[in-house]
Amino acid sequence: MSPVRGCAPLTAQAYVMEQVAEYAVAVGGMRAIPYDSCIAYEEGQHCVIVAYPPEYDPALPTPPPAGACIAALNTAVERALAHSRCTSVTVLAPNRPAVAPLDAAVHTDAYAFLPLPLSAPDAKLRNMLRRASRECVIAREPMGEEHETLLQHFCRSHALEEGTSSIYANIGQYLASSPAAVLFTARAVDNARLLALAVGEYASLTTAFYMFAARAASCPPGVADALLLAVIREAEKLGHSQINLGLGINEGIRRFKQKWGHAHLLPYVETSWKRIPRRSGTTVRPDAAAFAAVPDSSPLSVYTARPWTDRLRRALFGDERPFDCVQVEVTSLCPGQCSYCPHTTRRDVWKNRHMAEETFAALHPIVRRARRVHLQGWGEPLLNPCFFSFASAARLAGCAVSTTTCGLHVTANTARKLVDCGLDIVAFSLTGVDEAGNAFRKGIPLSAVTAGIAALQEARRQAKSPVPHIHLAYLLLVSQVEAVIGLPALMARLNVSTAIVSTLDYMAAPELQDEAFAPGDRRIGAALDVLRRAAAQAEAEGRHIHYGLPGTTPRRECAEHIQSCLYVDAEGECSPCVYCNPPFVQQDEGRRVFGTVRHTAPLKIWDSLEFCRFRTAQASERPDEICLACPKRFERLV
Ligand code: SF4
Ligand code: SF4
Predict the structure, then answer these.
(1) CA 305, CA 368: separation in Å to the nearest integer?
(2) CB 343 less than 6 A from any atom of ligand 1
């Protein structure tokens, strides 16, 4: 079945681009479904409803009263939603629809319309057009390789939003599928080099559309204006009464359009929310709560105000996520005084600070490309009042989200929030299976940890939620090896299905050396024996103990998987791993930081020469000095 079947009458009356079904389907790969005066584009659970009823058309000689327009819009959206089973909804409309919940994310802009025929351009614009006519020749052309190349260069050299770049990548497909779309080109008078291009769309009976424009870096001034004039002249020839120049997007584009006279502005309100299908007896993950926790006014709204074009891109290209994990130090504050932690041994130089919302917001380009965000570095993450907003924002970006806590602050109220914000794993730290074994964690009695676990179990039960999964993060110290045999019993008592056993990797003081396993350490055999027995017992009871111990030879990839993971501290500084960047006020010789997201885009930091060199060296025979003896290079996980 044609993906635009039944949409022709709506396209014929279109006055915003998104009503031209061929366009939206070609760039987004979604299915178009007409509902009265709306078009819905659906893909899986996502639905974009374009609700611009005829009452709002700027070409109407006498617009109906505002009340009638709003009523028409609300009715149209409600009808479309009544038919749709999608749980993720975006409505594009001149107003926020009444049906949208109070916590819906809203992004606004405005379309600019020029009435046709065009009134005479002012002197300045006439000069630009005259100059352009000496530099270039305007023509209509079929799309080819040269045009694709220009579009690629244009996207690379402009800071286009990801969704916009994807749409540009699909212009060829759109031109092929829309018989009323026309590609105009500007070529240099002297050597016929392609200087710029623009696309006009003429499928509607009343409104023409200025769809896209792109130019080469060396394009002379005025050429873009000459192309727009060609798009307008074609519309006049076909008898259109207005042209929609598109959204304002940014100040530069707005200024370019303003040159053409006083355009009529039509509001663009993009409203997004999640619907939860509630059926009795079903268990529902709290995605709506995640939406609710990021208000519009927060810097974190960059995670919610996601352009619908971005959703189209994901629908088209899939949800590629090159980063396995972004580990984020939410705070470096901690109530604990664990004897093996630099928070205790280096308290004189410890920097106490929370991550600010602005810093987490700046991380969004990399978070969107990550499968998992782990909210914990050096410190107790639940102390940061923004913790739940960060978790919700990362969930909205489509990531799995986990944390590791000391457990002291997991009260009934906090446990409810941990369930509501959509975390998938909460790990509780331990060094033993009883109070004596856990005494290394001064200030954090085992009883407090078990109370926190019980509170989280209860919150999950009340919410009928299978998540977050509860894990134990068990630190195996050399002097405590025998005690680990009691771990399966503790897991059974706490009803915890998974424990991850690690060893001491960061040497916070020289005297701690005895509590750590070095590669080739003769005590590893005994530890391995106890761990194997504990893991077998847990397995027999349907639980899992995973553990890692250093082998005798280094591996090319360390256990922190720095080729696809990175660490960001509370100030936004990016490092390969948590061990490279403890929060000391003094510079530490073991510190490796490659930039801060407060000043540089995170992907630029990741791609910087120095960071790339570090990763390449780490995967070679000659890693950075800090990695040479790091136990994480020797670790073997079971
Ligand atoms: S709870 Fe974690 S951050 Fe706090 S002192 Fe203990 S090990 Fe260090
Ligand atoms: S080997 Fe290097 S990058 Fe990997 S955990 Fe150790 S210090 Fe970090």
Answers:
(1) 13
(2) yes
CB 636 within 8 A of CB 532: no
- Per the DSSP assignment, residues forming a β-bridge with 441 are 338
Average pLDDT over residues 9-25: 89
What is the rounded end-to-end Cα distance, in angstroms, of the chain? 51
Q: What is the pLDDT of residue 409?
A: 94
pLDDT, position 285: 39
Quick one: 454 exposed, middle or buried, by C-beta within 10 A (0-12, 13-18, 19+)? middle
Can you list the positions of beta strands (E) in 454-551? Answer: 469-476, 498-503, 544-550
State the closest ligand 2 atom to the C-alpha of 576, by its place in the atom list counted from 1.
3
Task: Indicate the range of 53-57, 79-83, 220-224, 339-343 predicted with least confidence.
Answer: 79-83
Q: What is the reported pLDDT for 69?
A: 78
Rounded-to-10 torsion of CA 346, 347, 349, 352:
130
Q: How far apart are CA 46 and CA 288, in angstroms?
A: 14
605 CA → ligand 2 middle, Å: 18
How far, in Å, from the CA of 382 to the mean position of ligand 1?
Answer: 12
Can you give the pLDDT at residue 42? 84
Q: Is the CB of 543 under 6 A from ligand 2?
A: no
Nearest Cα neighbor of 601 from 298, 250, 161 is 161
pLDDT single digits (tens) 112-146: 999 999 988 889 999 999 999 999 999 999 999 99
In the prediction, which pLDDT does 419 show?
93
Instruction: Give residue 558 CA to ligand 2 midpoint distance, Å.
Output: 6
Question: What residues contact 101, with CB distance under 8 A and at least 6 apart?
Answer: 273, 288
Q: Match 């891109």 to its residue by tokens.
A: 313
pLDDT category at 272 given cuts 50, 70, 90 is confident
Residue 576 CA to ligand 2 centre (angstroms): 7
CB 528 within 8 A of CB 638: no
For residue 332, the ligand closest to its alpha carbon is 1
Q: Is the pLDDT of residue 262 over 80?
A: no
Q: What is the mean pLDDT of residues 475-492?
A: 97
Tens digit of each residue's pLDDT (9 = 90 or more) over 76-115: 888 788 777 777 889 999 988 888 876 677 788 889 999 9
Nearest CA to 182 among 158, 213, 146, 161? 213
**What backbone torsions phi and psi does residue 191 show, to the nearest 5 degrees?**
-130, 10
Q: Using one digit for the tens of pLDDT, what is the confidence trace for 204-227?
A: 999 999 999 999 998 999 999 999
Residue 383 CB–ligand 1 contact under 6 Å: no
Does residue 313 line the site of ligand 2, with CB under 6 A? no
- How many secondary structure helices (H) and strands (E) does the chain include? 22, 23
| CA-based torsion, 218, 222, 228, 234: positive or negative | negative
Q: For 420-462, what is each residue's pLDDT tens digit?
A: 888 999 999 999 999 999 999 999 999 999 999 999 999 999 9
- State the closest ligand 2 atom to the C-alpha of 626, by its place in the atom list counted from 1: 7
Do the beta carbons of residue 36 and residue 19 sit within 8 Å?
A: no
d(CA 625, CA 81): 59
Q: Is the CB of 566 under 6 A from ligand 2?
A: no
- Please say whether the dihedral angle defined by the alpha carbons of residues 370, 376, 377 and 383, taken in this order, is positive or negative: positive
Task: Judge residue 147's burial from the number of C-beta atoms within 10 Å of its C-beta, 0-12 exposed, 13-18 middle, 19 or more buried.
Answer: buried
Q: List all residues 6 or more positions away from 236 whose beta carbon is below 8 Å from its beta carbon.
A: 116, 117, 118
